[in-house]
Amino acid sequence: MLKKYLLSVLGPGIFLIGFGGSYLTLTLTQKPKAQTSITTPEPEPTQGPFEPIKTQDSYNVVLLGSGGEGHSGGTLNDSIIIVSVNSKDKKVALISIPRDLWVQGNRKINAEVMVNGFD
Q: From which residue to which does any coiled coil extend (predicted)?
């Protein structure tokens, strides 16, 4: 009997205290201010054309991999890796470029290669 009485009094009391505490916390804490818009300046295009660096000791190769046709995005590049081979030092360096990297023109790099080629 005492147990039922304690549960019927303390249960709603604990609920009301928790609810009231949550309400006070939400109303008294600082609310985030309205976000201000951030503008990004347009990058200036680099001046070209560029002449490749002539050397007999090293050369670079671009490896492109795609998923193949038959599905959406099959002609997009899934893998872009730049390989630099230094024949003098007998060293190879690989750099993987993320396919979702945004480039000038508001496109991802894998779509940019598909649209404009690799020239």
A: none
Measured between alpha carbons, how far is residue 98 from residues 5, 80, 81, 82 in Å?
65, 7, 9, 11
Q: Which residues pair with 42 in a beta bridge?
A: none
Residue 74 has pLDDT above 70, yes or no: no
Q: Which of 82, 62, 83, 75 is nearest to 110 (CA)?
A: 75
Does the pTM surpass 0.85? The reply is no
Coarse DSSP helix, strand, coil percentages of the chain, rounded to the nearest 5 percent: 30, 25, 45
Which residues, other chains included, contact 96 with Cβ-Cβ below 8 Å and sequence gap of 6+? 79, 80, 81
**What is the three-class DSSP state of 79?**
strand
